[in-house]
Amino acid sequence: MRALPQTCRRVLTKGGRSRGVSSSWAGIMNPTTATILHGFALWIWHAPQLFDATVTNEFLHRLQHVSFLGSALIFWWALFRRPRRDLGAGAVHVFATMVHMSLLGALLVLSPQLLYRAQTASASEFGFTPLEDQQLGGLVMWVPAGTVYAIVALAMFGFWIASSPQRSCDA
Q1: When you count CB atoms within 10 A of the terminal residue's CB, does the N or C end of the chain come out lower?
Q2: What span, in angstroms and rounded, lies between the C-alpha atoms of 100 and 123?
Q3: Segments in the chain below pLDDT 70
């Protein structure tokens, strides 16, 4: 905002405080809504025809990446802007995202047929068949990315447990 002229900042600030914008923003920033939005962006863009269309259409390609980045920013912002007492619930959202993203990766790895023809057309330049290229992409989505989500979920659970009030087991 500071990079914009003062008049633009005033207009945007006033608009952002309007009831419609602020209630819409609050709805999007709900962790459940943010998780669903992020998952939807991930799955919809991996539909074979749409994914291949992004290879040949620059506008769709940019829109795909903007929606990936935007939904991810909303997802993480919605989770980390919550009070510490909500970290347990946030960990559940991260774990759910890990599961569905890993499932998508596993589907790409284990698919017996090629799903992305345009995306994998130049795989031979790197020594892969198109199916191997698709499987490699799915493997990256499944294992390393899933591992990062698992680590974050476990860390969030750990912080949540550490911040909960101490209770005595003696009654």
Answers
A1: C
A2: 26
A3: 166-171
